[in-house]
Amino acid sequence: MTLPRAYVEHVAIRVPDVDRHVDFFRQVLGLGIRDEQAAEGGRPRQVWVLGSVQLIEDPNFVGPEGRLAHLGIMVDDYEGVLARAAAWGAKALPAGPNWLELPGGLNVEILQASAGTVEAALAINPRA
Q: Where is the VOC domain (predicted)?
């Protein structure tokens, strides 16, 4: 059996103040915003920063910053991954069949990658 290839496309983190965190990524790391989505009324917001980070504003969150929301994982075999995940014990979440809760509670979002992009991403040596 040939297993699919995959990479983590983004990590979604809940934070009490999105703007404060976006400022850090912009001013300290020089990373821009890839996408932004506001809820009805403008808040809470979600911001995707270049470099695989999604910030989800959760003003009611109390505790240490950076509560993990989910991992977004790009795959080259969407249907095969969903079938193997179900057989493995992952449960689909109400958000859709590609939103899974793994035993133990970790949430993952499975995303179909364009042809060749998974191999290209995996070929990058981040230590080079």
A: 7-128
pLDDT of the chain, 128 residues: tens digit per residue = 788 889 898 999 888 888 888 888 888 777 888 899 987 877 778 999 887 889 998 888 776 666 788 999 999 999 999 999 999 999 999 999 999 998 878 899 999 999 999 889 888 877 76
Nearby residues of 119 by Cβ (< 8 Å), 6 or more positions away: 5, 76
Q: Which CATH fold would you assign to the domain 1-15+69-127?
A: 2,3-Dihydroxybiphenyl 1,2-Dioxygenase; domain 1 (3.10.180)
Contact 12, 38 (CB under 8 A): no
114: which residues sit within 8 A by CB, 6+ positions away?
A: none
